[in-house]
Design brief:
Distance between the termini: 64 Å
Number of helices: 15
Structural class: alpha/beta
Shape: globular
Strand order of the largest sheet: 8-9-10-11-12
Bound molecules: zinc ion
Order of helices and strands: HHEEEEEHEHEHEHHEHHEHHEHHEHH
Length: 393
Amino acid sequence: MLVGASQLDAGAQNDPPAQSGESKNSSKPALPLSEYEPKSMLHVRETHVPRSRFPSIDIHTHISVSKKSENGVALVPERQYLGTPQECLAVMDRKNIRAMVNLTGGYDQGLAEAVATYDKAHPGRFYTFTEPSYSKFKQSEYPKIQAEAIAEAHRDGARGLKILKTLGLYLRENTTSGTLVKIDDPRFDPMWDACGQLNMPVAIHVSDPIAFFTPTDRFNERYEELNNHPDWSFYGHDFPSNAELLAARNRVLARHPKTQFIVLHVGNFAEDLGNVSENLDRFPNMSVDIAARIGELGRQPRTARRFFDKHQDRILFGTDATPHGDEFPQQVFNDQLYEIYYRFLETDDEYFDYAPAKIPPQGRWRIYGIDLPEPILRKVYFENAARQLHLSA
Ligand SMILES: [Zn+2]
């Protein structure tokens, strides 16, 4: 193509520097990646969305966690509380959040106490899920014990069951040692069935971002995140592949059609919405939340928008919010986090941060809003979760 002189000039900034400048520049040591904080020079609209357009239910939060864990396995029912009800309610009222679902409510006394402190003290604002008691896993009667524990948790007020990625990646035959237990291990069948019989949805986290299963090297798109948290890498050792984990999960979904599964983090394959969409088509008992994955959804806004259009009845609003979780800005429970989610869902703003952090914590990219229409927003913010939780209004 022929270009005029003026066009050549306009491109001069891309030309290699002159000899003298080059030697001067190359004597400077390179800026370490961890110190690089580029400011976008784009002039594009910035919409501030202080409140969700419709009341929301955050289906995925962690207000309490196990007091004792070992090698990724929670070992006691007792809870450590990360935020008081009052602290949570202040943010919820400002951000138009009707209810928070605390997924990690534990079991036995820990669960009963969490339900009393949050759900019963503030009706309609908090819902608590129970968790398996893996500390009893080695007992020969475990399948029966666990199914009965679900019924007891239901009586104690649990609204669903949460499965952490513990299952598939941490739980071992001797609980914290031995060979890994598979997600579709038949010893859990009575537990899945009990959830179906009691109308308790199963919020299940399986696998992790696909980059966590590849080497932490210069080709890894989450290099900095994995470098900061080496224990998040599931590359090598005796870990199954992401594909094996998802296949085992799918066998559970197929085997328990009467149990509802909320497959967290966009089915834990937000990098491949085609795969998630295919599984949603295959399994009528599957729905997904978007927690901690707007970084993925927002970097493929057109594909994401089509995904929301197609599966609008089975996508739930969730954030993975953790009070005082400052170490993980993509899930820290604060006003800014919710404002980013609302901006992503409600606007067509371009190229903005997916987490309240100086450096994008899950990978060096920015996101685009998907501008959902109101009927879909109502479903995603509230109606789809209300159906799963069996709320009347
Ligand atoms: Zn979570």
